[in-house]
Design brief:
Layout: H1 5-21, H2 24-29, E1 35-36, E2 39-40, H3 41-64
Antiparallel strand pairs: 1-2
């Protein structure tokens, strides 16, 4: 079974978006003593963006296998 081109493009876009989000200019914004929910903002940003990207990829792949 071959994946449709649009599903492949969506997964590649997730990777490109994460590449830009985890790049130095965006990450340096969160460098400091700012805390969210008792955790440094940097860790909250990295793990929440990672979790969201996994959830979106799961949704895309779930639609592919239906």
């Amino acid at each position: 079974m071959k994946m449709k081109k649009r599903h492949q493009q969506k997964l590649v876009m997730i990777s490109v978006i994460l590449l830009f989000l985890w790049n130095l200019p965006f990450v340096s914004i969160l460098d400091g003593d700012f805390h969210l929910f008792g955790f440094p903002a940097f860790y909250v940003f990295i793990f929440s963006s990672w979790f969201i990207s996994i959830a979106v990829a799961y949704y895309i792949l779930k639609k592919f296998y239906e």
